[in-house]
Amino acid sequence: AALADPGVVGGAFGFRFRERRLGLAWIEWGARLRSRAGLPYGDQALFALMARSLQRGATLYVNVWDNKQPGIFLFYELAGRVFGFSEIGVHLFELIYQLITAAVLMWLMQRELQQRIFACLAAFLTVGGYYLSATGRYLGQVEGLVGLPILVSLAFASQSATSPANRRTRM
């Protein structure tokens, strides 16, 4: 209920303290500066920090630890290596990843459907819907990235179920 109220803000977004004191004003100023500089925040900042540690030789779950699955940290590490450890770099890498997901979805659906327009529509609705509905704090999260591995797994499972010969080679 509090998050639906436009007067209630906090966490990773711009905010103001009700109490007007100099120390709190400095915190507000720092939060605005971080936001304008495009630095990651929340989970994204943690993922980027851990990915940078991995790049520098840290061992996951030994030197750095979080309860998230390892794939998200490897994703951020690869994004950082390719485009830099910035919010823009990570989101650019994520966009390319999502376009690959759309291409794989279109390719798989074109094999099954006679009307190719439906394959294109499925890809557009899947990836386009993600970007239309996700706000900045939801981008780069595990839930938005699991589509491609699930899609590839389903494709292999579907293909292996078509014949006994395929089943033996895929498993």
Write up this protein:
With 171 residues, the chain is an all-alpha fold. The protein is 66% helix and 0% strand. Helix 3 (70-83) crosses helix 4 (87-112) and helix 4 (87-112) runs antiparallel to helix 5. The protein is elongated. It starts with 21 loop residues before the first helix and ends with a helix. Mean pLDDT is 79; it is low at 1-13.
Poorly predicted runs of 5 or more residues: 1-13
Write the H/E string, N to C.
Answer: HHHHHHHH
In DSSP terms (H or I, runs of 4 or more residues), the helix count works out at: 8
Find the structural class using helix and strand composition.
mainly alpha
Total count of strands: 0
Ends apart, CA distance between termini? 48 Å
Question: What's this entry about, in short?
Answer:
By secondary structure, the chain is mainly alpha-helical. Helix content is 66%, strand content 0%.
